[in-house]
Design goal:
Largest sheet: 2 strands, antiparallel
Helix content: over 70%
Radius of gyration: 22 Å
Distance between the termini: 64 Å
Number of helices: 20
Number of strands: 2
Order of helices and strands: HHHHHHHHHEEHHHHHHHHHHH
């Protein structure tokens, strides 16, 4: 093994050990001592941790792998509109959802998203929380799998390490600090990971520009590809020609932003901040970070193409290959001496950070759904505080194991896996969160019907309608979100209005 590889391994190993130690520290501090602490950190997060934890848990491996890989292959059209949609969605989520959800959930004493729905609509049978918990498990498993896939790809691309063994080791680390410290550990590590991710993005793009020969060379190479830098066209790697990006495609891609309203692991951060008056600070930090990080991620893909054009890296011709462009650049960086090898190790730790910061949040949200919402609320099993914690931790392990099996095929695309899970959460929970917070006429029947309709439509559109092609091939989140919204309104108006006490509570929280 070369000196550069040893430096990279040492840097990554130190990072992984540090994350586990954070879990141990948070466990001793009380972060995993009770279900309220384990799931929501006792609602004690500060504005900076809230902002960066939310965005780090959001910007999974698609930030450092999916977005650069798509830009590398196809230019700026699809990835650019995706980023714009995500940026708008981020800002609106913090602006219109965060404060109301924090106040409403605290008023109800809800510590999970399914629990919020159940208490909001006085669902004594907990059908709402059961359905919500089931959908969380369904869509978080592939989302978590995408993170584990990224870990395996990282070590396989760098060292030729066995993909499956590397993936399993990474999963064990994520499970370790999540099980030990709960929400506080996850949020604290997310803050650390967001800093590392930022460093990785900035350093690698500067290095890539230098290796490609400068901005002018990069611009010339990109302009030589038809439609590559055109937001209304795009580049088709299979034909080498300009592709068409219509108005319908743009609207469909912008719809990525709708997903934010339904992301349980992000919504939990809103519920956990210590003071809702500090959310304005969090919103500004989060929005700025998202804008900068996505811009740099896309630039890495464009710069990476020029580095390959310069002969410094091999051409990457498939989605699975192109998503390793940042790994390839880091490996190239490591060949310039010990110092740069250590820096490359930190960059690669940033890739791990982007993966782990999302996987840990998803595992925690899924654990809360299983232990708190399904077993205790829906099935009525009375668990002691200790038994509840054991159940939650076992759920983390169980979901991680299933995620590993789903990620077993190294040829799967990180971006595609994330896109499907994102659509699922956005359609199932997004409309209901908005209607629950802003329309007092919404009732339990409408809430249940909307969740089911949104979840089913994601599968129907993805696997039955989209394959027809043409206008039908739009991103499944948009039609599923609209159908869910329509069903909530129609069913709520067609059934009895909510009880007066529910309306009074809505009005009280709104003030």
């Amino acid at each position: 093994m070369s000196t550069s590889q040893l430096c990279i391994i040492a840097t990554i190993a130190i990072y992984l050990v540090a994350m586990v130690l954070v879990g141990v520290y948070c466990s001793r501090k009380g972060g995993g001592s009770s279900s309220h602490e384990f799931y929501l950190g006792g609602r004690k997060l500060g504005p900076i941790v809230t902002a960066m934890s939310a965005e780090a848990s959001d910007m999974s491996s698609y930030l450092l792998m999916g977005l650069p890989g798509l830009a590398y292959l196809s230019g700026v059209a699809e990835v650019g509109w995706t980023a714009i949609g995500l940026a708008i969605g981020t800002y609106l989520n913090w602006l219109i959802v965060a404060r109301r959800l924090r106040r409403y959930s605290a008023h109800l004493g809800a510590i999970t998203i399914p629990g919020f729905f159940s208490r909001r609509y006085r669902d004594q049978r907990h059908a709402l929380s059961c359905i919500a918990a089931v959908f969380i498990l369904i869509f978080f498993i592939p989302y978590t799998a995408s993170g584990f896939k990224a870990i395996g790809t990282l070590f396989n691309s760098l060292f030729g390490a066995n993909y499956h063994q590397a993936m399993i080791i990474g999963a064990i680390v994520v499970i370790g600090y999540t099980v030990l410290g709960g929400f506080l550990a996850v949020s604290t590590t997310d803050l650390i990971q967001s800093i590392i991710m930022t460093f990785a993005l900035i350093f690698i793009v500067l290095f890539g520009i230098q290796q490609a020969g400068g901005i002018e060379v990069i611009s010339a190479n990109a302009n030589a590809l038809p439609g590559y830098l055109n937001m209304t066209q795009g580049f088709d790697v299979t034909t080498g020609q300009t592709s068409t990006y219509s108005a319908l495609n743009i609207v469909s891609t912008l719809a990525w932003g709708l997903g934010y309203f339904g992301m349980p692991h992000i919504l939990l951060r809103f519920m956990a901040i210590e003071d809702d008056s500090k959310l304005k600070t969090s919103r500004r930090i989060a929005t700025v970070w998202v804008l900068i990080s996505m811009f740099i991620a896309i630039l890495i893909g464009i710069v990476g193409y020029s580095v390959t054009k310069a002969g410094k890296l091999p051409f990457l011709t498939t989605s699975a290959e192109s998503e390793t462009i940042i790994i390839q650049l880091a490996n190239l960086l490591s060949q310039h001496g010990v110092f740069f090898a250590l820096v490359a190790g930190l960059v690669l730790a940033g890739i791990l950070a982007s993966t782990m910061s999302t996987a840990d949040s998803q595992l925690l949200a899924a654990a809360s759904s299983m232990s708190h919402d399904l077993i205790q609320d829906f099935f009525g099993v009375k668990l002691s505080a200790k038994a509840s914690m054991i159940t939650a931790r076992c759920t983390v392990v169980g979901i991680a194991i299933v995620g590993i099996f789903l990620a077993w095929n190294p040829e799967n695309s990180v971006f595609n896996i994330v896109a499907f899970a994102w659509a699922g959460f956005g359609a199932v929970f997004g409309p209901l969160v908005l209607f629950s917070l802003f329309w007092k006429r919404t009732n339990k029947q409408g809430a249940i019907a909307g969740m089911i309709a949104g979840g089913l439509m994601v599968f129907v559109w993805k696997y039955l309608i989209a394959p027809i092609g043409g206008a039908w091939s739009i991103y499944e989140l948009l039609p599923a979100f609209l159908i869910s919204s329509l069903v909530i309104v129609v069913v709520s108006l067609a059934t009895a209005p909510p009880a007066q006490e529910i309306v009074d509570e809505f009005e009280a929280v709104k003030k």
